[in-house]
Amino acid sequence: MQNKLETISNLFEGKEIRSIWDSEKEEYYFSVVDVIEVLTDNDYVKARNYWKWLKGKLSDEGSQLVRNTNQLKMKAQDGKYYKTDALDTKNILRLIIPNLKTEVLSTK
């Protein structure tokens, strides 16, 4: 039996964004912390702490985004697999776009 989830590492400006391809749903899932790390140009620890804070804030606001987060096992730098918060393509864009919109508006 073939595993339906395939781990894929993508590089964005030299930084890894871990993702998983779900062949049954034909959907990619991306590590939320990795995406935040790339967008904020911070290290993993700062990105993880930011996601923890943001997830709490969004949860308090009743955001659907937090409910759509999946815990998927992804390979860490130590070679072991750990449960990682992941979002599908549509929801990772929902996470990114409000932040870009806010940044663009604050520069005007």
Task: Work out the strand percent.
Answer: 25-35%
Tell me about the largest β-sheet. 5 strands, antiparallel
Low-confidence stretches: 102-108
Gyration radius, rounded? 14 Å
- End-to-end Cα distance, whole Å, is 55 Å
What's the number of extended β-strand segments? 5
As a percent range, the share of helical residues equals: 40-55%
Continuous helix count: 4
Sheet with the most strands: spatial strand order: 1-2-3-5-4
* Secondary-structure-derived class: alpha+beta
Query: Could you give the order of the helices and strands?
Result: EEEHHHEEH
Question: Averaging pLDDT over every residue, what do you get?
Answer: 81
Rough outline: globular
The domain tally reads 1
